[in-house]
């Protein structure tokens, strides 16, 4: 499949870039054997289309703008050649600043890229040093992190001015040492308000520095960044991705929708999850943090435990929740969109400011570097549910992009109320809604019958009434207290006992009242034959995918790398004998319990 490659301006000598043949291997791309072996150890044997084109160009030292759809392997497309160039450069001269900078829009992405780079360096057994910075780090930590200096720096742009003002990074040293600069999720960098930080930084970038810009979407912001830091770049745009308009949902994602009233959304999502009509793991998107907690409280009354990932949690907790969810320690994650939530919450913040003065505790400030939709590589998420519709078609594309990543299959279900029909129609027309192109179609969800929904109505409405605004606010405050405590505990405890990371639980029951056991299981008499059949199909599909084991709190040692720095990697070590006994029973996510005989609900 030929990739669209725009060549740079004519005023520079550039050899013709021949059309890309199909299926070139990593070796044929000129990759160092250590990197090829490392990728194979990670189960990656053949390059994705964007990698096939980008890696040789980056190895040749070209500036590159790479646009490819979500989940297409953009991270390795720049990390792998970046590392190879540093292998060659290693020890060449004593540097006063890192040779490579990778700038990303959110802390979660910082952590994700840091983990990927660390893993590749470890597998290649090379002496390269990588650090990640976040703007909440005090100057002393920044100084420690940059001592040496490291070879690779991963950071959000907001940290750079802090490093300059603290004197831990000198512009002259950057000008002397910087070889390669990457802006990942580039279109998001400016929308997160980093333009001034990036502009201030670009004045220190040496002319010889190779600059790479990665994004799943293109926008005016990307154009702005191109002018700011790139010199005659190669523009790589895979055929199926032009601007966000051509951004198609990965072909391996089936998209469904359910129409219901706003009032019945809780009933419908309960039916989907309780009747096991969707494949785990599941990410459920809401548009506000309050709705996320309302949903969490409602579901936990039926024994469905989840965690709410949102902008007000401490960074350590957010990263640990992502780590635990990716490790399969719980199956349901409720997430709020990045910028959309922030805007809405901050808008609420302003007009509630007088009310809050009377409150004892001011609401936790939202972390401006929060982001769990764009770019985060969730592992084995099979279903994305839009409990509330996103406010834009781009938001829809990036939410759905959390499933069906790389070559995996996935599904999305949007629960659409009448007042969301307008944005739903916009999304459908945006995707093309072409009868001949399955990936542009959103079809009615076939497995949920009216009978099945009605059979749960009484219980659902009864419980929904008990989840009041006050209960939601209290749960949100309680969760925040738990997580701040976890986060503080992390600082103190895990430096000494890194192995106990997996004792932290983020899906603790928040309800004050004891859970009613009879709500935990759906009795057979409430499951009509069609629903029972549908549930069996989903279970068989899950078994076929080898995803039959319920979430486990403890995984064998081989699944977890030894955590180097517990506050950074949050990679829990496999549990030793003593710890397994130490895990309190009943604190597991409901999936770890043996399925009980169905009792009345
Ligand atoms: N050549 C490959 N073969 C198979 N899987 C791959 C390959 N390259 C990367 N992956 C895997 O694909 C997943 C998505 O990769 P990555 O996060 O880089 O995608 P992306 O294009 O950056 O997505 P997003 O637009 O959401 O940032 C990751 O789990 C990664 O390990």
From TrEMBL:
<dbReference type="GO" id="GO:0003723">
    <property type="term" value="F:RNA binding"/>
</dbReference>
<dbReference type="InterPro" id="IPR027417">
    <property type="entry name" value="P-loop_NTPase"/>
</dbReference>
<keyword id="KW-0067">ATP-binding</keyword>
<feature type="domain" description="Helicase C-terminal">
    <location>
        <begin position="265"/>
        <end position="453"/>
    </location>
</feature>
<dbReference type="InterPro" id="IPR014014">
    <property type="entry name" value="RNA_helicase_DEAD_Q_motif"/>
</dbReference>
<dbReference type="Pfam" id="PF00270">
    <property type="entry name" value="DEAD"/>
</dbReference>
<feature type="compositionally biased region" description="Acidic residues">
    <location>
        <begin position="14"/>
        <end position="23"/>
    </location>
</feature>
<feature type="compositionally biased region" description="Basic and acidic residues">
    <location>
        <begin position="1"/>
        <end position="13"/>
    </location>
</feature>
<keyword id="KW-0378">Hydrolase</keyword>
<dbReference type="Pfam" id="PF00271">
    <property type="entry name" value="Helicase_C"/>
</dbReference>
<feature type="domain" description="Helicase ATP-binding">
    <location>
        <begin position="55"/>
        <end position="236"/>
    </location>
</feature>
<dbReference type="InterPro" id="IPR011545">
    <property type="entry name" value="DEAD/DEAH_box_helicase_dom"/>
</dbReference>
<dbReference type="GO" id="GO:0003724">
    <property type="term" value="F:RNA helicase activity"/>
</dbReference>
<feature type="compositionally biased region" description="Basic residues">
    <location>
        <begin position="551"/>
        <end position="561"/>
    </location>
</feature>
<feature type="region of interest" description="Disordered">
    <location>
        <begin position="544"/>
        <end position="601"/>
    </location>
</feature>
<dbReference type="InterPro" id="IPR014001">
    <property type="entry name" value="Helicase_ATP-bd"/>
</dbReference>
<dbReference type="GO" id="GO:0016787">
    <property type="term" value="F:hydrolase activity"/>
</dbReference>
<dbReference type="GO" id="GO:0005524">
    <property type="term" value="F:ATP binding"/>
</dbReference>
<feature type="short sequence motif" description="Q motif">
    <location>
        <begin position="24"/>
        <end position="52"/>
    </location>
</feature>
<comment type="similarity">
    <text>Belongs to the DEAD box helicase family. DDX56/DBP9 subfamily.</text>
</comment>
<protein>
    <recommendedName>
        <fullName>RNA helicase</fullName>
        <ecNumber>3.6.4.13</ecNumber>
    </recommendedName>
</protein>
<dbReference type="GO" id="GO:0005829">
    <property type="term" value="C:cytosol"/>
</dbReference>
<keyword id="KW-0547">Nucleotide-binding</keyword>
<feature type="compositionally biased region" description="Basic residues">
    <location>
        <begin position="577"/>
        <end position="586"/>
    </location>
</feature>
<feature type="domain" description="DEAD-box RNA helicase Q">
    <location>
        <begin position="24"/>
        <end position="52"/>
    </location>
</feature>
<keyword id="KW-0694">RNA-binding</keyword>
<dbReference type="InterPro" id="IPR001650">
    <property type="entry name" value="Helicase_C-like"/>
</dbReference>
<dbReference type="InterPro" id="IPR050079">
    <property type="entry name" value="DEAD_box_RNA_helicase"/>
</dbReference>
<feature type="region of interest" description="Disordered">
    <location>
        <begin position="1"/>
        <end position="23"/>
    </location>
</feature>
<keyword id="KW-0347">Helicase</keyword>
<feature type="region of interest" description="Disordered">
    <location>
        <begin position="341"/>
        <end position="360"/>
    </location>
</feature>
């Amino acid at each position: 499949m030929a990739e669209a490659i725009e060549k740079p301006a004519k005023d520079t000598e550039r050899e013709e870039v021949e059309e890309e043949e199909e299926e070139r291997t990593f070796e044929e791309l000129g990759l160092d054997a250590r990197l090829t072996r490392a990728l194979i150890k990670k189960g990656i044997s053949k390059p994705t289309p964007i990698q096939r084109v980008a890696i040789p160009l980056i190895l040749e030292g070209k500036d590159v703008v790479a646009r490819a759809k979500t989940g297409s392997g953009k991270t390795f497309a720049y990390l792998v050649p970046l590392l190879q160039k540093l292998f060659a450069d290693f020890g060449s001269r004593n540097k006063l600043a890192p040779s490579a900078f990778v700038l990303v829009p959110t802390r979660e992405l910082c952590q994700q890229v840091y983990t990927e780079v660390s893993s590749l360096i470890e597998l290649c057994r090379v002496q390269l040093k990588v650090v990640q910075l976040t703007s909440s780090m005090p100057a002393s930590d920044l100084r420690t992190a940059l001592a040496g200096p490291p070879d690779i720096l991963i950071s959000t742009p907001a940290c750079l001015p802090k490093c300059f003002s603290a004197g831990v990074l000198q512009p002259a040293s950057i000008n002397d040492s910087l070889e390669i600069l990457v802006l990942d999720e580039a279109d998001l960098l400016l929308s997160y308000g980093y333009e001034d930080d990036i502009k201030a930084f670009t004045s220190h970038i040496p002319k010889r520095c190779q600059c790479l810009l990665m994004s799943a979407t293109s926008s005016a912001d990307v154009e702005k960044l191109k002018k700011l830091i790139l010199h005659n770049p190669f523009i790589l745009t895979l055929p199926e991705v032009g601007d966000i308009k051509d951004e198609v949902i990965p072909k391996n994602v089936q998209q469904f929708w359910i129409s219901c009233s706003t009032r019945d959304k809780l009933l419908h999502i309960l039916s989907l999850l309780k009747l096991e009509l969707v494949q785990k793991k599941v990410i459920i998107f809401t548009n506000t943090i309050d709705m996320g907690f309302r949903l969490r409280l409602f579901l936990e009354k039926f024994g469905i435990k989840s965690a709410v990932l949102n902008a007000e949690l401490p960074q350590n907790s957010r990263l640990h929740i992502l780590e635990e969810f990716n490790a399969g320690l719980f199956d349901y994650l409720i997430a709020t969109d990045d910028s959309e939530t922030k805007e809405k919450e901050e808008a609420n913040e302003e007009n509630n400011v007088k009310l809050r003065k009377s409150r004892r505790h001011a609401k936790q400030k939202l972390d401006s570097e929060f982001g769990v939709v764009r770019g985060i590589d969730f592992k084995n998420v099979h279903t994305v549910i839009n409990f509330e519709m996103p406010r834009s078609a781009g938001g829809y594309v990036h939410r759905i992009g959390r499933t069906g990543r790389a070559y995996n299959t996935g599904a999305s279900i949007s629960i659409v109320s009448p007042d969301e029909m307008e944005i739903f129609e916009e999304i459908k027309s945006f995707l093309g809604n072409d009868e001949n192109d399955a990936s542009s179609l959103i079809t009615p969800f076939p497995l949920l019958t009216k009978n099945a929904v009605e059979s749960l109505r009484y219980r659902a409405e009864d419980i929904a009434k008990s989840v009041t605004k006050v209960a939601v606010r209290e749960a949100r405050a309680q969760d925040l207290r738990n997580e701040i405590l976890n986060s503080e505990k992390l600082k103190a405890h895990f430096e000494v006992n890194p192995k106990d990371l997996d004792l932290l639980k983020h899906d603790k029951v928040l309800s004050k009242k004891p859970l009613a056991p009879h709500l935990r299981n759906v009795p057979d008499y409430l499951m009509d034959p069609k629903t029972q059949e549908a549930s069996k199909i989903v279970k068989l599909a899950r078994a076929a995918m080898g995803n039959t084991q319920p979430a486990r709190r403890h995984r064998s040692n081989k699944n977890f790398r030894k955590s180097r720095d517990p506050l950074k990697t949050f990679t829990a070590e496999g549990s030793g004998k003593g710890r397994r006994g130490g895990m309190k029973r009943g604190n597991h996510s409901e999936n770890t319990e043996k399925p009980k005989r169905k009792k009345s609900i």
